[in-house]
Design goal:
The chain is α+β, with helices and mostly antiparallel strands. The chain is built from four helices and three strands. It has helices at 11-19, 27-37, 46-58, 78-102; strands at 25-26, 62-68, 71-76. A hairpin with a 2-residue loop joins strand 2 and strand 3. It is globular and about 55 Å long.
Length: 103
């Protein structure tokens, strides 16, 4: 099957990937990390979070590493880290372009 070309990540998607950079996490850990990291600016409801996690798992960006009842813990894959770094560079370019226009 042919790989789909991924467009830019949404802000919640970007922060969910960021959450995995240092450690494996479950849903509640991710939600708390994103809220804390963004000062509450980005809030993840369960529907949004689990839709993102399912999509990331389907795309091979994360993988499930543990299940304890309803609690599922996920790990960032190499592909997920690469996707995060590509998006970070895209955002840096956007910021540079925006700042240059102001000069």
């Amino acid at each position: 099957m042919k790989n789909k070309v991924r467009g830019p990540l949404t802000e919640p998607m970007f922060y969910v990937l960021m959450a995995f950079l240092k450690q494996d996490m479950c849903g509640i850990d991710i939600t708390e990390y994103v809220s804390r990291r963004t000062g509450g600016r980005v809030q993840l409801g369960p529907g949004t979070l689990y839709t993102i996690l399912a999509k990331f798992q389907e795309d091979g960006l994360i993988e499930e590493v543990a299940v304890d009842g309803r609690k599922r813990t996920y790990h960032l894959t190499d592909k997920g880290r690469e996707t995060y770094m590509e998006e970070l560079e895209r955002l840096r370019k956007c910021l540079r372009d925006g700042e240059e226009v102001l000069l």
